[in-house]
Amino acid sequence: MQIENVSTTADGQLGLDFSVWGMFMQADPIVKGVLVILAIASVWSWAVMIDKSFTLSRLKKRASKFEDLFWSGKPLDELYAKIKDRADHPMAKVFAVAMAEWDRTKGTSANGLVVGAKDRIDKVMHVTINRELERTESQMSVLATIASSAVFIGLFGTVWGIMNAFQAIAIQGDTSLIAVAPGIAEALFATALGLVAAIPAVIGYNRYSSLINSYATRLTGFADEFSAILSRQLDERAR
Hints:
This protein is mostly helical. It has helices spanning 2-14, 20-26, 29-70, 76-83, 90-106, 117-136, 140-172, 177-238. Helix 3 (29-70) packs antiparallel against helix 7 (140-172).
């Protein structure tokens, strides 16, 4: 009951507003800047996570559909002719570049075999995998940066708010809750917003890094299996 009376007195005498918007408007300009930065970081991290969620889900579905076609038993040349001009996901692009190199290999030797053909096919597939994974991982550094820095940015706002509280004590010569409440409130607000920005970013970074690594393993596995198929065909042509 005593704390409630103090809050009522503070609101009545000093016109303090302890709502989220009220604390922001009453905060020191430095603390306001910190709060704006943290709010932008939080929105940005959620935008990245939502984008990654849809992107990885789409890539997973397209990869499953392509693998069904690849292992359906249809001739590879027929599948290549169907998708070579509209490969719209990493696994299809890996297949397309390997088949393109395979066609060049067949067309440049009398017996259909070029020395080093397997190495070149492996190389173009892995270069394509690395390029596509780099695109998939775009904006992940944003999550990592927010996850590692948001708490410290919020801590800076906290320290500044506490400094303001001590300044209020020194100026007013009063250690009551009414004197220090504004500074303490903005300090705690900065701490809370720093955690709100950092915690989802940490969780999102770990989750989507794991999903991307899993997808990378899937792409590499497909490339290795496809390389083995082409290698057997090269060996048969060499006989």
